[in-house]
Amino acid sequence: MTYVETTGRAPAMPGFPQPRETTMWKCIRCTVEIPYKDVDPGIDSFGIYFICPRSERRNNLINVGKGNLIELAQTSD
Ligand SMILES: [Zn+2]
């Protein structure tokens, strides 16, 4: 398994998707791609999410981190 380390982050867990500086979230309503760094994820009783700046559609995220690490990934629904 090849692993490219990024600076300022905990080592990635092999087999898990890791958001990078270049990661783009994709709004499930208007399909606009939003840079990972340009959204501010929120959390409520339904889980983790970000709000699309264009359509204001809620897009669900999941935490794929291990232990105390928080690494967000987008879900398909
Ligand atoms: Zn949108």
What is the structure about, briefly put?
This protein has 77 residues and is mostly beta strands. It has no helices and six strands.
Helical stretch tally? 0
Percent helix range: under 10%
Mean pLDDT: 79
Q: Can you list the ligands bound to this structure?
A: zinc ion
Q: Which ranges are low-confidence, i.e. pLDDT below 50, for 5 or more consecutive residues?
A: 4-10
Label the overall shape.
globular
Radius of gyration over C-alpha positions, nearest whole angstrom: 13 Å
Word description of this protein:
The protein is mainly β. It has a domain at 38-77. It contains no helices and six strands. It has a four-stranded antiparallel β-sheet with strand order 3-4-5-6, with no helix packed on it. A hairpin with a 6-residue loop joins β1 and β2. It is globular. Residues 27, 29-30, 32, 52, 54-55, 57 line the site of zinc ion (ZN). Residues 27, 29-30, 32, 52, 54-55, 57 line the site of zinc ion.
For the structure shown, list the relevant keywords.
single chain, 77 residues, mainly beta, four-stranded antiparallel β-sheet, two-stranded antiparallel ribbon, 30% strand, binds zinc ion
